[in-house]
């Protein structure tokens, strides 16, 4: 993940791989979650579920953000930002308003969707809502059995419903998912179909690692993981 670059190198990078975009809409889904709509020429961009774009958030720092929605014909894309006031990306996103211009890279990363698995589960937190939103239409179109497991702050518990997400189980951020033995007690481990499901675990590194450990202990092998942040480490 690109994190920091000298100012001069950042300018060169943007001229080579950046696409100029304009903010055309902003919506606060909660005081801590902000959906921003950008307009740009998307013809050269590669959109895959789970791919993220790089945005320059100050003179030397860059952050990756998952694309929540895009429309090639209209030239629009949405990103859901977590506003938590603990990092340069959060602070930058909070300031974005209609009419602002910036450079955004073509999305890239790891594909998280495998259509071969009938049962699919996505686990994450506020930082994964964009991924969940982008994944939902495909899961429904292809008639998957699916679940979203989301650990959210109390202020954000209603956001999945606002986004139209379905089959959501909302968990409080009380450290439960950092305990692999507690994760072992989740209902999915008592149903044979979910032991052969595809799991995508993203967000808090500590939670992701504990969930993965519990899955492996129960014989689950189809697991995709990506930590978006780690407590105490400078990030979003």
From TrEMBL:
Residue ranges annotated for the FAD-binding FR-type domain, each copy included: 16-114
One Pfam family named in its UniProt record: FAD_binding_9
Domain of life of the organism encoding this protein: Bacteria
PANTHER family per UniProt: FERRIC REDUCTASE, NADPH-DEPENDENT (PTHR30157), NADPH-DEPENDENT FERRIC-CHELATE REDUCTASE (PTHR30157:SF0)
Entry protein name: Siderophore-interacting protein
High-level lineage: Bacteria, Pseudomonadati, Bacteroidota, Sphingobacteriia, Sphingobacteriales
């Amino acid at each position: 993940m690109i994190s920091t670059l000298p100012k001069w190198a950042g300018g060169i990078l943007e001229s080579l791989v950046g696409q100029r975009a304009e903010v055309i809409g902003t919506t606060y889904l909660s005081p801590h979650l902000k959906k921003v709509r950008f307009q740009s020429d998307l013809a050269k961009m590669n959109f895959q579920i789970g791919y993220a774009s790089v945005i320059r958030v100050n003179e030397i720092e860059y952050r990756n953000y998952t694309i929540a929605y895009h429309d090639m014909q209209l030239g629009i894309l949405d990103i859901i930002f977590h506003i938590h006031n603990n990092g340069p990306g959060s602070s930058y996103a909070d300031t974005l308003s209609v009419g602002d211009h910036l450079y955004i890279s073509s999305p890239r990363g790891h594909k998280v969707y495998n259509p071969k698995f009938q049962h699919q589960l996505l686990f994450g937190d506020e930082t994964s809502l964009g991924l969940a939103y982008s994944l939902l239409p495909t899961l429904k179109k292809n008639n998957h059995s699916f679940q979203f497991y989301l650990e959210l702050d109390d202020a954000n518990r209603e956001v999945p419903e606002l986004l139209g997400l379905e089959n959501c189980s909302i968990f409080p951020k009380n450290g439960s998912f950092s305990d692999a033995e507690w994760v072992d007690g989740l209902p999915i481990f008592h149903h044979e179909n979910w032991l052969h499901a595809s799991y995508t675990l993203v967000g808090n590194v500590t939670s992701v690692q504990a969930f993965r450990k519990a899955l492996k202990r129960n014989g689950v092998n189809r697991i995709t993981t990506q930590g978006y942040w780690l407590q105490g480490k400078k990030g979003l």
